[in-house]
Amino acid sequence: MVATSDSPVTQCKGSGMTTHGGSEPVFCTIVPPHVLDKLSQAEDPALAGPARRTLQRDAYERTQRRLTTVLGASAVPAEADGKPQRTIYDARHGTDLPGRKVRGEGEDPGRDATVNRAYAGLGATFELLLTAYQRDSIDGNGLPLDATVHYDRDYNNAFWNGEQMVFGDGDGEIFLDFTIPIDVIGHELVHGVTQYTANLTYFGQPGALNESVSDVFGSLIKQYTLGQTAAEADWLIGAGLLAPRVTGVALRSMKEPGTAYDDDVLGKDPQPASMDDYVRTGRDNGGVHINSGIPNHAFYLAATALGGHAWERAGQVWYDVLTGGELKQQAMFTDFATLTVKAARERFGDGEELDAVSKAWEQVGVRTL
Ligand SMILES: [Zn+2]
Questions:
Q1: Each residue of 323-367: pLDDT tens digit?
Q2: Bridge partners of residue 248, in order along the sequence
Q3: What are the chain's domains?
Q4: Separation of CA 254 and ligand 1 centre (Å)
Q5: pTM of this prediction?
Q6: What residues have a C-beta under 5 A from ligand 1, the ion?
Q7: pLDDT over threshold 50, residue 1
Q8: Got the DSSP string for 196-226?
Q9: What gap in Å lies between CA 185 and CA 358, rounded to an integer?
Q10: pLDDT tens, 135-162?
């Protein structure tokens, strides 16, 4: 069975652009392949080994997704009742998915902090989508949220595979438990929202927009959970994920792209903050995790210029664009920026929102039409 062009299975895959309107399945990891590539070249086998095995595992999972025929559709009938329907599974360091069920919706927390964090992270994502944007789960129709924890051994990644979330425990040397940063959980689930809405192609600028949208709402989920204003937020993606020996604070910084880490083993954060430093590369699906720094920084600038809770105004504008139906799968930065200006005007009129959004794009060097 081949997915149709409007099927929600086309974006966020691992290897290049589709040429046939997209029947490639979904596979999105939080740690980009270029970071694991670098790590796998470390002299210390204790560092290189887990990175190499993680890359192999990711490649295998990616292939599995390609071989699986029906994707994106949940086997469980959804109940659009405004309540989350979460199930957490434990892979017990194996790789069979989903693994053994360890916590269902409404069940009390157990002893495993990883299970509890995954459950809470799915809940926080569900809650922001519902309360801020009246969206019932990631598909807008009550999709049950499944996650597997303790995937594989020393697995240095987390991913959304089009059907569920999967979390590794990290190798403890470079990466810690991937359920620690709630924005990482949010980031991955929001790939699901994109999959069901604008379905941005996971390559080049549309791919960087796809990544950026996940960072934006991942960060907003963290800010919402902590009750933070734009001024109080850290605007980091993956804070708490890097082990103490790593010189760095997170995977990415929306406030100062390019400054999240600078480490002997991991290398330096390659993100640009503006079009002046746009990176042309064939790696990382045409730099999807690299050039996402530019729209990320635009959102940060708009949100902090407006102040208050970033999900209420800047977040609403971005959400309107993502879900409004005008954003094309192949959208470039300029297309996205132009639609945010339009959305700001439609939602809030000719006020400070329009001004903040327009100026933010100008500051990062993205033209609006
Ligand atoms: Zn991603």
A1: 999 999 999 999 999 999 999 999 999 999 999 999 999 999 999
A2: 261
A3: 74-196 (3.10.170.10), 204-363 (1.10.390.10)
A4: 14
A5: 0.91
A6: 28, 214
A7: no
A8: HTT---SSHHHHHHHHHHHHHHHHHHHHHHH
A9: 30
A10: 999 999 999 999 999 999 999 999 998 8
